[in-house]
Amino acid sequence: MSAPIVAGGPGGTGGAGPGLPAVAEKQRSAAALLGRLARARELGLVVALFLLFGVTAIVNPRFIGVQSFKDILLNTAIVGLLAVGQTLVVVTRNIDLSVGSVLGLSAFVTGLLFADHQVPIVVAFLVGTLIGAVCGVINGVLVAVCRIPALVVTLGTMYVFRGADYWLAEGRQVNAADMPSAFLKIGSGSVLGIPILPLIALVLLALAAWGMRNLRSGRELYAIGSNPDAARLAGIPVGRRLFVAFVLTGTLSGIAGVLWAARYGTVDATAATGFELNVVAAVVVGGVAIFGGSGTVVGAALGALLLSTIGSALVVLKVEALWERAIDGALLLLAITLDRVLALRAERALRASASRGATTLPADGATGTPTRDGAAAAPSSDGAAAAPSPDGAGGAPPGAGAKGPGATPADGAPAGEAAADVAQGGTR
Prior knowledge:
Blueprint: H1 20-59, H2 66-90, H3 99-117, H4 121-145, H5 150-169, H6 181-188, E1 190-191, E2 194-195, H7 196-214, H8 216-226, H9 228-233, H10 238-264, H11 275-285, H12 297-316, H13 322-357, H14 415-423
Antiparallel strand pairs: 1-2
Helix pairs in contact: 1-12, 1-13, 1-14, 2-7, 2-10, 2-11, 2-12, 3-4, 3-5, 3-10, 4-5, 4-10, 6-10, 7-8, 8-10, 8-14, 11-12, 11-13
């Protein structure tokens, strides 16, 4: 959101922009608006889930049984975990199409470690996770350091990682008999009647949600997705944040691969082939803007739950499996269209708010920047308008004590953090 420029002194030198308190107020209004939109999307997903359960239960009451709920949670856990990782890069205006291949590679290596080397469960878990992290590092370096578009990079690594999986497998399949029973319990066991697999996914979801909401580095991902150039000017280390986002996405994909092996027992080189559409659909249906800058991991998880529930409902309703893909694609298109409509509405609302708060300047342009109480700050000795102090009085001339892109605004928050808070869309 651009701000009006205040004219400088007689020499025509540009002075300070609008008072920082006024800018901060507009930023808070923008964050509140985007936050309301995000919460509305998540509430809509919950309502859709209840309606889907209700309609399907009318046709077949067994759909709302305990076992049915467990199956849906188990089916959602792995896709939901991948969706959480995908959200980290999608909010930065990027995408990772290699998550399915990373999962497959991690899953097969995990099974191979058990079958050929009889390693402890902890070691297999760590190795599978490390494989995902290494794949994330490769993607992160190519995107953040080499600045190659993420779509191109991850489309290529999707095939590279899958090819590595086929090379390792050589047509071999690892069966449940080759894996420890304690490991398989992770995929089939329960704690207090709740399957272990969804509990693990829920813990990781909670950690990711907390980090994106409370850590400055997490909030800065939204600022990058909203406007990468503005994020750089605000002092945000864009390249570093993108690199970490891809590494975390790869790490979560590696964990998902280990859990896949525990869930299904039988693993080969085709594991999770085509999962990319499921994950992207879950993220977008969950309200994460494909254009970046808004969305939550909770919404992405709800999107995964909705798609898994649709798949289970189609089986109960005896609908052919081919319709599941068609419905997923239709929901994806609908969600992208809705995102665009909401973005345009939010943009119009923010422009209207900016025009209402715009400052009208005198013809001679010699007055200083308006302060919080509406009074103009006194011009400095060289004719440039003085920046207001936090209490609304005239302050030092622009540049006297400026710290560059991380300078502290009048409300005490660093500029980079303020930009991140606004772009996050109120999820702070």
